[in-house]
Structure formats: C-alpha cells, structure tokens
Amino acid sequence: xxxxxxxxxxxxxxxxxxGLCWLAVLFDGLDMFxxxxxxxxxxxxxxxxxxxxxxxxxxxxxxxxxxxxxxxxGTVADRIGRKKLMIGCVTLFSLASGICAVSGSVxxxxxxxxxxxxxxxxxxxxxxxxxxxxxxxxxxxxVIGLLMTAHHAGGILSAYVAKWLVDPVGWRAAFWxxxxxxxxxxxxxxxxxxxxxxxxxxxxxxxxxxxxDRYEAxxxxxxxxxxxxxxxxxxxxxxxxxxxxxxxxxxxxxxxxLLLVYGVATWLPTLMRTQGYELANALTFVVVFNLxxxxxxxVAGRAADRFxxxxxxxxxxALTAAGVALLSVHMPMGVTTMVVFLTGVFLNxxxxxxxxxxxxRSTPDNRATAVGWTSGMGRFGAVFGPWLGGxxxxxxRGGWGFTAFALAGVSSMIxxxxxxxxxxxxGTPVSSxxxxxxxx
Length: 440
Hints:
This protein has helices at 5-9, 11-44, 52-80, 82-102, 106-134, 140-166, 171-177, 185-191, 196-201, 205-215, 228-236, 243-274, 279-307, 309-326, 333-361, 367-394, 399-426, 433-437. By secondary structure, it is an all-alpha fold. The longest helix is centred in the first third of the chain and has 34 residues, at 11-44. Mean pLDDT is 82; it is low at 1-9 and 429-440.
C-alpha cells in the first residue's frame, strides 16, 4: 500500500472534521475578541462607571475562565469524548454572552465573561486534538494552523460587529451577536463524528469501524482501554524521565505567549487610542492584526512541517517582540498598519506552533491531556496579560504596555528556543510522520 493511501482514503472525513471545527473556532474567536473591540466604547462612555483598572480585571476574568476550561479540557475530553465536550463548550460561551448582554452591573458582566471563558478555554485544545486525529500524514502543523485561521477570522468579525452595531445600537447588541453560535450546536450534534482514537480507546470498536467504513478512513491501532488510573498516568507521563524539562519549557513558553496574545487582543484598540489614533482606525488595526494572523497560520504551518514547529515558534516570537515594541512609537498610518499586520502574522502563529509541537510529539491516548495542560498553564499568562495592561493604563503609563508585551515575547523565544535545541540534541523528531501515523 502506498504511504499516502490512508490520508487519501480518509480525506472526506478529514475535510468534514476540519470544516466543523473551523466554524466552532470562528465563534470562539468572535466571543474572545468582542470584549477588546467594544472596550474603548465602554471606557469612553463610562459604562458601569468602568475604569481602566476594572477593565483589565474584567479581561482577566474571561482568561481565568479559559484557564479553568483549558486545564479541564484534556481530562474531560479523554473521559466523555471530544465531540460532547465541543458541543458543551459552544453552548456555554454562547449562553454566557447572553448574560453579558443583559447585565446591569460590573459584577454580572464579569460573571458572564468568566463563564464564557470556561467554554472558550475548553474548546480550543479540544478542537486541536480533534483535527490532529484526522490530519493527513506529515501535515499536522499545517492543519492546526488552518484551524487557527478561524480564530482570527472571528477576531475580524468582532471588529466589524463593533463598528456596525455599537454606535447605532449599543454595546449590548454586540454580545447578542455572540449568542448566535448557539444555533450551531445541533449541526455539531448531527454531523461531527467522534474521535476514532477515542472510540477505539474506549472499546467502542463497532462504532469506530462503522464510522471508518462510512468515510473510507483507516482505523487507528488499539492502544488498550483507559481507566481512571490511566488518565492520571497520561498527565504523570509528561514528567517521566527527561520529559519534565521539555514539559516545563513548553509551559513557560506558553505562559509568555498567551500573556502576549491576550494582552494585545484585549488592549490593542485602547492602546492605539492612547497613541493618538482615532477609534475607527483603532478598530481597523484589529482587522489588520487578525488578517496577519490568518496569513501567519498558513505560512507557519507549512514552515513548521518542514523545519520543525519549535524552531519556527522561536523565530516568530523574536519577530513578534520587535513588532510589538515598534507599536509604542507613533508612526505614519501606513507604516503603523504594516507593522500591525506583520505583528499579527508572527504573534498568533508563534503560540499556535507551541500547541502543534506538543500535539505532534504526543501519542493519541494522551494528546488531549498534553495539549490541554500546555494551554492551561499558558492561561496563567493569559490572565496576567489583560490585568497588566489595565494597571499600566490606570497608572498613566499606557505606552509601557507595548514594551511589557514585547518582553513577554522575548521570554517565550528563549524558552521555546531551548526546547528546540534540546530536541535537536536528543534527535527526537518533532514534526515526524511517525507521530502522525500513530494517530490514524
């Protein structure tokens, strides 16, 4: 049999899974970015008497919820299945946006953002694990990069929702739009297949075989039945032998990366306003930033499949730090737009390549746990980033926000760079076909 045969036979199933996960992550991006897009309006109109410090706290509430969701995602997905968890996450963040839309106080609004964060944090690592199961051989990083373009498409959508609705209708309308993904859950229930690896691991061989036959896909090899002890063993396995060093390096890199990602996602329009740009231009920067993110995901995925995800991530973080530092300088509009675009290219895909590295290095039975915990540990940075931006603005030092975020990019470059050097020294193949074969 040709080595390409399995991916060719399973192409229909791969397209279906990637397509449905892409739409789910699109809604994830919309809900994540909508707060940053409406934040300048909330501050200027003093909604709820909101101050910059409180606004930073609210941003951290959502990312704290994402921390909880991401930490639980791997273990819950390995227990109940990735399909059920994805449906639950979409339902949760959609309903939580409704709470924000009807809120009459900072406390209720903060509750809505926290609950939304739990759903948002659980969805992303679960979707990454799902598409990794069905990715064609040797294209794991590319498929993950393609999936993450949806997150930035959602960011673009959030900027246009804010532009079109906030002034004429009000900020609440923007959050009502974020309730719309609730109607997508029946589609997921009907069309999204369960992970073949999960079905086989759970002993549901008949279901797995029927699904594989329906889409002419290849069944993964059985890896044994997972007990409660096995699920804990998947987490403990991340620290066995010399793996604990790699695990900590990935966690530290993810901390700095998500501090940077969510700090910029929350405060970019507001920080650009402090640099003297009009609100309309500040929201345009959100669109440009996320367009760069889409381009970056596609470019980084191809580059990572060829040269290794950790190497590409380290280079991308270095370029990100340079771009973010430049944004602290007021430049002509055209130059600033180009810098924002290039920063978006490198920033977002740098973090995603950390996930790609962990996913491709993991075995199917602990992939969700490994990705979920890497994302979860990084969420501590995601909590800290929005809070840090708010504190700097409250102290009248908004210009230092870009500098602080740039330093976070430098730290991630160092940690993922060390991980890349260790991988090269040990001869471990990070982007090898062998890892992906075991997922099919």
